[in-house]
From TrEMBL:
<dbReference type="GO" id="GO:0034058">
    <property type="term" value="P:endosomal vesicle fusion"/>
</dbReference>
<feature type="domain" description="CNH">
    <location>
        <begin position="34"/>
        <end position="450"/>
    </location>
</feature>
<protein>
    <submittedName>
        <fullName>Small GTPase regulator</fullName>
    </submittedName>
</protein>
<keyword id="KW-0963">Cytoplasm</keyword>
<dbReference type="InterPro" id="IPR032914">
    <property type="entry name" value="Vam6/VPS39/TRAP1"/>
</dbReference>
<dbReference type="InterPro" id="IPR001180">
    <property type="entry name" value="CNH_dom"/>
</dbReference>
<dbReference type="GO" id="GO:0016020">
    <property type="term" value="C:membrane"/>
</dbReference>
<dbReference type="GO" id="GO:0006914">
    <property type="term" value="P:autophagy"/>
</dbReference>
<feature type="region of interest" description="Disordered">
    <location>
        <begin position="233"/>
        <end position="340"/>
    </location>
</feature>
<keyword id="KW-0653">Protein transport</keyword>
<dbReference type="GO" id="GO:0005737">
    <property type="term" value="C:cytoplasm"/>
</dbReference>
<keyword id="KW-0813">Transport</keyword>
<dbReference type="GO" id="GO:0015031">
    <property type="term" value="P:protein transport"/>
</dbReference>
<feature type="compositionally biased region" description="Low complexity">
    <location>
        <begin position="302"/>
        <end position="327"/>
    </location>
</feature>
<feature type="compositionally biased region" description="Low complexity">
    <location>
        <begin position="241"/>
        <end position="254"/>
    </location>
</feature>
Length: 1174
C-alpha cells in the first residue's frame, strides 16, 4: 500500500514565509495595471500599503476565526489616498513612517512629505507638505514611555533637520546638521549612521560632528576622498527672513487633489532657501571617533581629509603619472632596428552604476553598511561601531542587496550564557538578484551576522519562496522584484505546523483480539488533553516584525522554529521511491546527522526543550523503522548501527509501546489502555502510515536469524532501561506502559532462552535474566502466567507465583505448579533440580497447615522417607503431634507410616512410639506369614541352611542380613529384631507379654524374636535352648552369656563392645548363663557337635565354670582328652588361687602384727588416767 505523498519542500532554513494578504487591489480604476507595492507598514491591526501609482491604501486586518487561529487575516479596504506630490512620474509612495506613540504617520510620496493621523489616515492639519529626500531616523534606543513626542530626521537637499513631532502640537525643529542629500539614516541615541548617494558617514547629532566612512560603490567617481578625522558640521543660524519662508515649494496639481495644508514651513524652519556656510577651518588632527570640542562652534564647516584606511581601493580613470616627460627613454641610435613592442592594455573597470545605500543596526553599538561595485557583483556588509571603526569581520552577499534587514539580537560568544538569558541568533536578510537584462530573478539570502566568518561557522541559506507561487524550480528565486521591511511593532502569528507536530495525540494501532479490546472504545477527552492542547497552542504562537512583498502579495518572514527546521530535514529522510512507489522508507544517514547536530544542545526556552524531545523521539523511531525494514528482507545490521539506534531510543525516551508496535510477535504485548498511547502528532502519523504500508505478520521471526540478531537483543536492553526507570519522578506513571514493558521483556527472554541448556541458571545467561525478572514484581501478572504456560516454563511460573501472588494464594499456586512438574508434566528448561527435596523445604517454611497436610501426604506417598520428615521436623512452622500425624498418614499415605514411626523412634528418639512401630513390623511380618506359605518356607530354609554350616560361621543375624531378599516384610523383620534386641531406654520400652502373645503361633518361624523376648523375661535357659537347638548359632549363644540378651541380633562394629561397659552382666550372672549353655551343649543331638562345642566352651571360658560342677555334669564315658584343657586350666587356676591365698594370709598376718605393735606403743605413750567416782 503506497499512501504516502511526497514530502513538502525542504523548510530547514532559519526563516519561513507566512501569508499576510494576497491579491491586493493596488489600482482602484484599473488604469495602473502595472502598479506594484513600494512600501508596507502594519500597526494595531491596520495595514498601510504604498504603491508605485502614488496611492496609499489603508486596510483593516480582521483576525482569523477562533476555530482556526492559523488562518490568514482578512484585509478590508478602509481608504485609498493619493498623498500630495509635485511629480506625477515619480516612483510613487517611497516611505511610510508610523509613529505609534503619537498616533501619526509620515508619508513620503514622490519626494513630498505629508503627515497623517492614525489609524484612519486623516491629514494632519498642523503640517503642510514639504519637499524632501527622505524621512526617518527615529532613535532605536528611545524608551517607550517617553511622552515628549518623537524626534525624526528629515533629509533635505543640503542638510538634515531634526524635528520633534508630538500628538497635539505642531512639529518643531530641534536641530539642523550640514549633511545634504541624505538618502538614509539610522540613529542610536546621539549617533546616526547616514548615507547620501555616494558614501556613508557617522554623525554625532548632539555635538554636530561627522566621520566619513567609505563610499557605497568603489567605482563611484564622485565619491571623492571619504574617511578621515571627525569634522564639525554645525550650521550658522540666520535670523528669520520673510523671503525664506515664502521660498517653499508650491503644491502641484496632485497636491490640490489631496489634503491642503495651511501651516507655514517657518514653524519648523524648513524650506528650500539656500543655506549659508562659513569658511572651513584647518582640519583637526586625525583620530578614531569623534572630537568633541569644549565649546561647539556653529561656524565650523567640514574639511575633507583623505584616510586610506577608511576608503576601499578603487581604480581611478584617466589618472596620469607624474614625471613622465623626465623619464622618457632616448631614441635608438641610427642604423639599429627599432623593435616592435606589443603593448597590452590594462583591463577597464566596469561602468559605474549607482548603488542604493543600506544601513541596519543589529546592536545598540553597531551599524551594518553595504558596499559593492556593480549591482550584479558580490556585495559586502561592513560593521562599524559608534567610533567609526570596523568591529567585526565583513559578510558577503551573492549580489549587491536590493533590500536589507536584520533580525535578532545576536549571541555574544565571548559572554557566558545563563539559563535565564533568552539568546536569539542574529541574521541578515538580503534581497539579492541573479541573471541579467529581462531575465533577472530575485531571492532572499540569509546569513548570520553574529558569528565569525573565518571560524567556519558562517553558512548561507535561501528563503524558500515557493509559497509565493512565483518561484523557479529551485524554490529560492522568483522573477518578480522583492521588497522587505521591518515593521514598527511585532505581530502575533500562529504556525499550525508546531501544534500538529507537538500536540499529544492518541496513536491508533490495529486492534488485536484479546488485547485491551474494552479500552478501545471512543476516545476520552480528559482535562489533561485539553490542557495539553492549550499548551501546544501557546507554543505555536510566534511574533514577527519582518514582511516581504512581491507583486500584489505580502507575506510575513517568520523565524523558523527549531522543531520545524529539524523536522523538515527528517521529513526529507523519511520517504523514498520503492518499486516505483513513494513509500515511507527512512534514510539512516540524514537522520543520524540530525541527531548528531542536536547532541549536547541545551534548550534555551520551553519551546526548544519540547522541540528537542520531539525530534529525538521521531529520529529514533525512524532509525528503528530502518532496522525493521532491513530485517524484514533478512539483512544483518552492523553493530554500530544497532548501537546508534539503541542509544537514540534511550536518549529520546520513546514510549516502549511504540517500539513494540513495530515488531511482529511482540506487538501483541502492547496494552493501550483507555486513553491509548499518547504521543506527539508528528510521530503518530508516521507510525500509522508505517503499519498501513507494511504487513508485519509476513516478517520472519526466527530467533536465531536476523530477527533475533538485529532486534531482540537491543530491544531487550531498551525495555530493561525502561524497567530500571520505573518509579522515577520524571517517568510516566501510566501503568499500561510498564505492563507492556514487563510482558514484552518476558516474551523476549523466553524466546532467547529456548536454546539454553537445561538446568539452573548461570551468570550471563538469559536464564538468569529471566529468573531475575519473575523474582521481582511484574505489572502484567496474568499475561506473564499465560506466556509461561505457553512456553511450558512451569518452574519459572512457580517463581512468578512466589514473588507476585497474594500471600493467601502464593503457596498453593507454587505447590500446585511443582506438583505438576513432579507428576511428569513438561517443564522446558529443566531448572527444577531435586524437586522433591525443594518441595519438602518449602513446606517447612509455610504456615498453612492444610497445604502442609495435603502436599506432605502427597510427597509421603511418592517418597515416604522424604515425606515423613515434613511431619516430624521440629523446625517447621507447622508442627504436628505424632499421634495426629500417624492418623493422617494412615489415612492418606499408609506406605509412609512405617517410615514416620522409624523416624520418630530411631531419629527423634521418641520411646512412646516403639510399641506402635513394633506392632507395625509385627503386622507386616505376621500378615506375610499368614498369607504366604512361601515366606514361611523361606524362613525355615534359612534355619536349616544356617544349621548345616560348618564353623566358623557368621552369626545368624549376619547371615540373614547378608542374604536378605528385596521384600518389605524381610526388611521389617530385620528392623523388628533390632528394636526387640535393643537395650536402650528409647527402644526397649515395649510390652513383652503382648508381643510374645502375638508371636507364639509362629515361634517355629520367628525363632530369633522368641529368643529376645525370653531373654527380656529373664528366661535365659529357654533363650539359650533356642539359640543352641533352634538356630545352631553357638557364637551368638556365647555372646548371650557374655553380654546379655540385648547384644544379639543387632549390628556391631569391629573392635568395640556390642553394648556399653556399664550394661555388661556381672561375672556371677555370666557364670550362671554359661552353666545353662553347658547344659544345652551337652544336649546337642549330634555327638560330634556336642563334643566339639562342649570342649571348646570349657577350654575358652573355663574360668566361668566350677570344676566340680562341670565334672558332675560331664558324662562318665567321655574321655579326659575332651576336656583336658579345661582340667589343666582349672587345676592351674586352683594352684594359683591356693598360692594367692597363702600370700594374702601371710600379708594379713604381717599387717596384723604391725597393727598390734602400733597399739602397744600408743598405750605406753599414753599416761594413766585416774577417774574417781563418787
Amino acid at each position: 500500500m503506497a499512501d504516502a505523498a511526497p514530502p513538502p519542500p525542504l523548510q530547514d532554513g532559519p526563516f519561513v514565509l507566512r501569508k499576510l494578504v494576497s491579491d491586493l487591489p493596488l489600482s482602484a480604476d484599473g488604469q495602473h495595471s502595472d502598479a506594484r507595492i513600494t512600501c508596507v507598514e502594519i500597526w494595531d491591526g491596520n495595514l498601510y500599503v504604498g504603491t508605485s501609482a502614488a496611492e496609499l491604501l489603508h486596510f483593516v486586518l480582521l483576525p482569523p476565526d477562533a476555530d482556526d487561529p492559523s488562518a490568514e487575516p482578512t484585509a478590508i479596504v478602509a481608504s485609498r489616498l493619493e498623498p500630495p506630490h509635485n511629480d506625477p512620474t515619480g516612483p510613487g509612495v517611497q516611505q511610510i513612517l508610523v509613529l505609534p506613540r503619537i498616533c501619526k504617520a509620515c508619508v513620503l510620496c514622490n519626494n513630498t512629505l505629508s503627515m497623517y493621523s492614525l489609524p484612519e489616515l486623516s491629514p494632519d492639519s498642523t503640517f503642510k507638505p514639504i519637499s524632501c529626500l527622505w524621512v526617518g531616523g527615529v532613535d532605536l534606543n528611545e524608551a517607550e514611555g517617553d511622552d515628549e513626542g518623537v524626534v525624526v530626521v528629515i533629509g533635505l537637499k543640503k542638510r538634515l533637520r531634526l524635528v520633534q513631532i508630538t500628538e497635539s502640537s505642531p512639529p518643531k525643529a530641534v536641530k539642523s546638521i550640514e549633511y545634504g542629500a541624505c538618502l538614509l539614516s539610522v540613529r542610536r541615541d546621539a549617533f546616526s549612521c547616514a548615507a547620501d548617494s555616494h558614501s556613508y558617514a557617522l554623525l554625532d547629532v548632539m555635538h554636530q560632528q561627522k566621520i566619513g566612512l567609505f563610499p557605497i560603490s568603489s567605482l563611484d567617481p564622485n565619491a571623492g576622498h571619504v574617511g578621515g578625522a571627525a569634522e564639525t558640521i554645525a550650521t550658522v543660524p540666520h535670523p528669520p527672513s520673510r523671503s525664506l519662508s515664502s521660498a517653499s515649494a508650491q503644491p502641484s496639481a496632485s497636491e490640490q487633489r489631496g489634503h491642503n495644508r495651511s501651516t507655514s514651513l517657518n514653524i519648523m524652519g524648513i524650506g528650500s532657501a539656500p543655506s549659508s556656510r562659513t569658511a572651513s577651518p584647518p582640519p583637526p588632527p586625525q583620530r578614531h571617533g569623534f572630537n568633541v570640542p569644549d565649546s561647539p562652534s556653529p561656524t565650523v564647516s567640514p574639511a575633507p581629509a583623505h584616510h586610506p584606511a577608511r576608503s576601499p581601493a578603487r581604480p581611478a580613470a584617466g589618472e596620469a603619472t607624474e614625471g613622465t616627460a623626465a623619464e622618457k627613454p632616448l631614441p635608438p641610435p641610427p642604423g639599429e632596428a627599432i623593435p616592435q613592442l606589443e603593448l597590452q592594455k590594462a583591463p577597464q573597470p566596469p561602468p559605474f552604476v549607482p548603488l542604493r545605500p543600506h544601513i541596519a543596526s543589529p546592536t545598540p553599538n553597531e551599524f551594518l553598511l553595504t558596499v559593492g561595485t556593480t549591482p550584479s557583483e558580490q556585495g559586502v556588509g561592513m560593521f562599524v561601531n559608534l567610533d567609526g571603526d570596523m568591529c567585526r569581520g565583513s559578510i558577503q552577499f551573492s549580489s549587491y542587496p536590493d533590500a536589507l534587514l536584520v533580525d535578532g539580537s545576536g549571541i555574544d560568544w565571548t559572554a557566558s550564557m545563563g539559563p535565564d538569558m533568552d539568546a536569539e541568533e542574529g541574521y541578515v536578510l538580503a534581497a539579492v538578484h541573479r541573471g541579467a537584462g529581462d531575465e533577472l530573478e530575485y531571492g532572499v539570502e540569509i546569513q548570520r551576522w553574529d558569528v565569525d566568518p573565518g571560524a567556519g561557522e558562517a553558512t548561507k541559506d535561501w528563503l524558500n519562496l515557493g509559497a509565493l507561487g512565483l518561484s523557479t524550480p529551485d524554490g529560492t528565486h522568483i522573477p518578480t522584484p522583492l521588497g522587505m521591511r521591518t515593521i514598527v511593532q511585532p505581530y502575533d502569528l500562529v504556525l499550525p505546523q508546531i501544534g500538529a507536530k507537538l500536540t499529544v495525540q492518541r496513536l491508533q494501532l490495529p486492534s488485536k483480539t484479546g488485547v485491551d479490546t474494552p479500552e478501545r472504545a471512543a476516545p476520552v477527552h480528559t482535562a489533561q488533553e485539553k490542557a495539553d492542547l492549550e499548551f501546544t497552542e501557546r507554543l505555536s504562537k510566534l511574533k514577527s516584525r519582518n514582511v516581504i512583498w512581491a507583486g500584489n502579495q505580502i507575506w510575513w518572514i517568520v523565524r523558523n522554529p527549531l522543531v520545524t527546521r529539524l523536522d523538515s530535514r527528517l521529513e526529507q529522510a523519511t520517504f523514498a521511491t520503492v518499486d516505483g512507489e513513494w513509500r515511507l522508507h527512512p534514510h539512516r544517514n540524514p537522520v543520524e546527522r540530525v541527531l548528531g547536530d542536536i547532541r549536547g544542545q541545551d534548550p534555551r526556552n520551553e519551546s526548544e526543550y519540547l522541540s528537542l524531545i520531539y525530534i529525538r523521539q521521531k529520529a529514533s523511531v525512524l532509525l528503528f523503522m530502518d532496522v525493521v525494514l532491513r530485517t524484514r528482507i533478512n539483512i544483518i545490521i552492523f553493530e554500530n548501527e544497532k548501537r546508534i539506534t539503541e542509544q537514540a531510543l534511550i536518549e529520546g525516551e520513546v514510549d516502549p509501546r511504540i517500539v513494540l508496535s513495530l515488531l511482529p510477535v511482540l506487538n501483541k504485548e502492547v496494552i493501550q489502555g483507555p486513553e491509548g498511547i499518547q504521543v506527539s502528532g508528528g510521530i503518530t502519523s508516521i507510525i500509522e502510515q508505517f503499519l498501513r504500508q507494511n504487513d508485519l505478520s509476513t516478517m520472519p521471526t526466527d530467533v536465531n536469524g536476523p530477527f533475533g540478531d538485529n532486534l531482540l537483543h537491543f530491544v531487550k536492553r531498551y525495555l530493561q532501561f525502561w524497567r530500571r526507570r520505573k518509579g522515577m519522578a520524571s517517568v510516566t506513571s501510566d501503568p499500561f506502559v510498564f505492563s507492556t514493558v514487563d510482558a514484552a521483556l518476558l516474551h523476549i527472554l523466553l524466546l532467547l532462552d529456548q536454546g539454553s541448556p537445561n538446568g539452573t541458571s548461570s551468570t550471563g545467561m538469559y536464564r538468569a535474566e529471566l529468573n531475575e525478572l519473575v523474582d521481582r514484581e511484574v505489572e502484567c501478572f496474568d499475561r506473564a502466567v499465560e506466556l509461561l504456560e505457553q512456553f511450558n516454563r512451569l518452574y519459572v511460573l512457580s517463581r512468578l507465583y512466589q514473588s507476585n501472588c497474594k500471600a493467601s494464594a502464593k503457596a498453593s499456586k507454587v505447590l500446585a505448579t511443582w506438583k505438576r512438574i513432579l507428576d511428569g508434566e513438561e517443564d522446558a528448561g529443566g531448572a527444577f533440580v531435586d524437586g522433591e527435596n525443594e518441595l519438602r523445604k518449602y513446606l517447612a517454611r509455610i504456615r498453612d497447615q492444610s497445604l502442609v497436610e495435603e502436599y506432605g501426604a502427597w510427597l509421603a506417598n511418592r517418597n515416604p522417607k522424604l515425606g515423613v520428615q515434613i511431619f516430624a521436623d521440629d523446625h517447621s512452622r507447622v508442627k504436628f503431634e505424632p499421634t495426629s500425624a500417624v492418623e493422617l498418614l494412615k489415612e492418606k499415605a499408609p506406605g509412609a507410616v512405617k517410615e514416620y514411626l522409624e523416624y520418630l523412634v530411631f531419629g527423634k528418639k521418641h520411646t512412646r512410639y516403639v510399641n506402635e512401630l513394633i506392632a507395625f513390623y509385627l503386622d507386616t511380618v505376621i500378615h506375610e506369614l499368614e498369607t504366604n506359605s512361601e515366606s514361611r518356607d523361606t524362613l525355615s530354609q534359612t534355619y536349616e541352611t544356617y544349621r548345616i554350616l560348618e564353623p566358623p560361621k557368621p552369626t545368624y543375624h549376619q547371615f540373614i542380613t547378608d542374604n536378605a531378599i528385596p521384600a518389605e516384610w524381610w526388611q521389617a523383620r530385620l528392623r523388628l529384631l533390632q528394636l526387640l534386641g535393643s537395650n536402650q531406654p528409647t527402644t526397649s520400652s515395649y510390652h513383652v507379654s503382648t508381643i510374645l502373645a502375638r508371636l507364639e503361633p509362629y515361634e517355629e518361624e520367628l525363632v530369633p524374636e522368641m529368643i529376645i523376648l525370653h531373654g527380656r523375661q529373664e528366661q535365659h535357659q529357654e533363650a539359650l535352648r533356642l539359640l543352641t537347638h533352634g538356630l545352631g548359632d553357638f557364637d551368638t549363644a556365647i555372646s548371650y552369656c557374655l553380654y546379655g540378651y540385648s547384644s544379639i541380633f543387632r549390628p556391631t562394629t569391629s573392635g568395640t563392645l556390642p553394648i556399653p561397659q556399664s550394661e555388661l552382666p556381672s561375672r556371677l550372672e555370666q557364670s550362671r548363663l554359661f552353666n545353662f549353655l553347658l547344659q544345652e551343649f551337652l544336649n546337642i543331638e549330634d555327638m560330634s557337635q556336642r563334643v566339639d562345642r562342649t570342649g571348646e566352651l570349657l577350654e575358652r571360658f573355663g574360668g566361668w565354670f566350677d570344676i566340680g560342677d562341670v565334672l558332675a555334669m560331664l558324662p562318665n564315658e567321655w574321655s579326659v582328652d575332651i576336656f583336658s584343657g579345661f582340667l589343666i586350666n582349672s587345676l592351674r587356676r586352683l594352684v594359683r588361687e591356693k598360692a594367692e591365698s597363702d600370700i594374702v594370709k601371710a600379708l594379713s598376718d604381717a599387717q596384723n602384727s604391725q597393727t598390734s605393735v602400733e597399739l602397744v606403743e600408743k598405750r605406753e605413750a599414753a599416761k594413766p588416767v585416774v577417774e574417781r567416782v563418787g
